[in-house]
Amino acid sequence: MIIHVANPIYDSVFKYIMEDERIAKTILSALLKKEVVHVTVRPHEYSNTTRDTLSMFRIDFAATVREKEGNEIKDRIVLIELQKTWLNTETLRFRQYLGAQYNNKNNIREADEKGFAYPMVAVYLLGHKVGNIKEPIVYVNHDVFDYNGNVVAEGNAEPFVESLTHNSIIVQIPRLQGNVNNRLEKVLSVFDQTNVEGDTQQVLKIDEDKYADDNDMMYVLHKLTAAAANSEMRQDMNVEDEFYKAIEDRDTAIMQRDKILKEQSEQISQQSEQISQQSEQISQQSEQISQQSEQLSQQSEQLSQQSEQISQQSEQLKNMAKALSASGQSNEQISQMTGMSVAEIAHLLE
Hints:
With 350 residues, the chain is an alpha/beta fold. The chain is 49% helix and 17% strand.
């Protein structure tokens, strides 16, 4: 049977279900792949309450985990720092919160004279994809090695090591997409956004029959169904929608502004290139004109030299004509000897 439940990706809905110990144990047991027998919500703050920053919902747990060590069953406390966000968030924001937890004296084991801290696991429920990681859930676990790269079997459980390092679990909600291959994916399937009903993200449609053999998951569904019917919860979701709508509008405006700036920058770059090309062409033309001017100057100088040579030749002919005339040669004889016309000779001798 198809039922309609509140979308737990909303902070208000997520807080509502995670403050229920049975649901917290169900989800955390699946994430840790260990039996969580008791969960306590530790003092925490919700950074999204003022709505003045990007939402990063945080909730901290002290989980009593039952583990088998050899032939013995032991309970140990593990701190779980769970952070959930809808939007792409700078990793610095995650690191700052983790840093605060490392610095929190309340995370030191009680009655521990050496000041060792409880082991910590950081869980990230992300409403966005992480790079090229295709797996919807990934585990980032530290290990202890010797110089040769061999695992030191007893290293991880050493309190000194646990106090200074932590494991991480990263869940990419957009990559869930109806795939259920294990217990964790079955538990997280209630976060699968491909089940969104209608135009709003507030409600998911889920086939209840798929969980009929799982009492814990049926309990989660009933809790989410109750949240969907709660008017105050729906109002809280409306507030979140308004908040994210404002962020989306702002991001859209920024993207449009950046697009316009990029286009203007490209136009300016093209214009600058055109001006550069025109400037280069003008420079080439100027160089050509300069070369032509130099050529004209050289030609003018050559003409001047030729004119001077002609003037000198004319003077020489005049002197020669006078000398020939003085020696008794007639104008006709002088013309034959110099190649000048009789009239020219007569003019020179005047």
